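Quarterly update from the structural biology core.
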Amino acid sequence: MSLRLLPAGVPRQFAVFVVGGLLSAGVDIGCMMLALKRIGDPVLAATVGFVASLSVNYLFHAKLPFATKTTAASAAKYLSIVGINYLITVVMVSAADHMFASPLGGKLASLPVVAVTGFVLSRKWAFR
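Predicted structure, tokenized:
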């Protein structure tokens, strides 16, 4: 697809959106590893990383690629998008596991799908 078919600024905006996702992944993993060393419980450590990452992701995306105010409404919409992306991920992981015995393949395949879904829903709905 030609970038000229997209509205002006979308390729740059999407690139900034993806950078925010990568930053959030780093926060998630880093906080999880720190919590794991301090707490020792892997599930609690994963939860700490997830919550920290979710917060960074929301604030980053609200402020940088979409330049909007953070509100309770946008946060609720953002959490809905997280839920939708979670369902997409679970479906793709389950399908890949069932069809190819490869849950990791499903997870990897879901990453670009949830990135695009998250971007479009964020741009058109949550951070409008």
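The CA atoms of residues 23 and 57 lie 8 Å apart.
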